[in-house]
Write a structure and sequence with these properties.
about 350 residues; alpha/beta; D-Maltodextrin-Binding Protein, domain 2; 6-stranded mixed sheet; 5-stranded mixed sheet
């Protein structure tokens, strides 16, 4: 395994200003108290969603995503797939709950720093959180024990894509080139423990190839270097890559779902060339474990209502996303299954955090 360099991942929060547009319900009043205890100042940004600078509370940053106040930690920088997920759901929750949702960065440890902050925030979670449970030894928290699942959001494929100068246009030609030139292809990905990282390692193992792996702070800088020709390829979630693919700046070789994606119907599935290969990403919202059932059920109801909105469904379809409606109990079971699945992949592929 070859790594060119290492950069830590970033995490973000999506928080809510306590400015109710209607009389607060009993549930909202409960969260209003939480907001007063863990306030976070917000500064407006050009996209209309504020960027927050967390105020330290007993040495830890804080904020929260809820009815009267809240936050959803996002694992990576602006423009990446987790950022996009937060910005799709934020306006909907703001409208439904009468609150102003804002965005905040929380750097650290492939998303582990943000997960710790979930003691005071809601977590915009994904595979990285379930992967880290196995990938990082000696974590000072237990994901399944220390969060309260709220709602699953949607699932997206990764796209295996190359810079136009790379002399491959199909998965078979990628494999042939990599075998003829071991370690020559520089493949970028959004940090250790991400679904991109695991997806690349699994591809290497099943296809019998070697790449030079190049970790980044997130999809945004990885894609910037790919388009500049500084690296050769990425395995990147479709939401952050699709615009660059459609503009011709990147060449897609395959999607990592078992079948083609409606968003890129001309791009084949990698599984058609590499038997048993499947990878991807998903997003969901979790709360601090102490959050009341009333609050969790209210948030879950509003998230699931979003899936019936034509505008949101159209945007998700354009991003190649498939919705994951369900209850908090179903999301908890999903997290457990994902943790077990990735544990098996990590151990069999002998993936490490360094």
């Amino acid at each position: 395994m070859i790594y060119a360099y290492h950069s830590p991942s970033h995490a973000k929060t999506l928080s809510v200003e306590c400015m109710p547009a209607y009389p607060l319900s009993e549930v909202a009043l409960e969260l209003k108290g939480l907001r007063r205890a863990f306030a976070t100042p917000a500064l407006p940004t050009s996209d209309g969603i504020s960027d927050c600078s967390p105020a330290p509370i007993t040495g830890r940053s804080s904020s929260g995503l809820s009815i009267a106040a809240g936050a959803a930690c996002r694992g990576f920088p602006a423009g990446g797939p987790v950022d996009i997920a937060a910005r799709v759901i934020a306006p909907w929750l703001a409208e439904r709950l009468g609150q102003s949702f804002v965005v905040d960065n929380q750097p650290g440890e492939s998303g582990n720093g943000a997960t710790r902050s979930a003691g005071y925030t809601l977590l915009m979670c994904g595979p990285v959180n379930t992967i880290n449970s196995t990938l990082f030894e000696g974590l000072d928290f237990n994901l399944e024990r220390d969060i309260a699942p709220v709602a699953s959001l949607w699932r997206v494929p990764l796209v295996i894509e190359v810079h136009p100068s790379v002399p491959v246009r199909t998965i078979p030609s990628l494999i042939d080139y990599a075998k003829a030139n071991p370690g020559k292809l520089g493949v970028g990905f959004a940090g250790h423990g991400t679904p991109q990282h695991v997806g690349i390692e699994l591809f290497k193992m099943l296809a019998g190839v070697d790449f030079t792996l190049v970790p980044y702070l997130g999809s945004t800088p990885s894609l910037a270097d790919l388009m500049a020709g500084d690296i050769d390829a990425t395995f990147d979630p479709m939401p952050s890559s699709i615009a660059h693919i459609k503009s011709g700046k990147l060449v897609p070789l395959a999607v990592t779902t078992p079948t083609r994606s409606e968003a890129l119907p001309d791009v084949p599935a990698a599984a058609g060339f590499v038997a048993g290969y499947e990878a991807g990403s998903w997003f969901g919202i979790a709360a601090p474990k102490e959050t009341s059932t009333n609050v969790i059920e209210k948030l879950n109801m509003e998230v699931n209502a979003a899936f019936g909105n034509a505008s949101i469904r159209a945007r998700l379809s354009a991003l190649g996303a498939s919705v994951l409606p369900g209850s908090p109990t179903q999301f908890r079971r999903f997290i457990k299954e994902e943790t077990e699945k990735y544990a098996g992949v990590i151990r069999s592929a002998k993936i490490t955090a360094k």
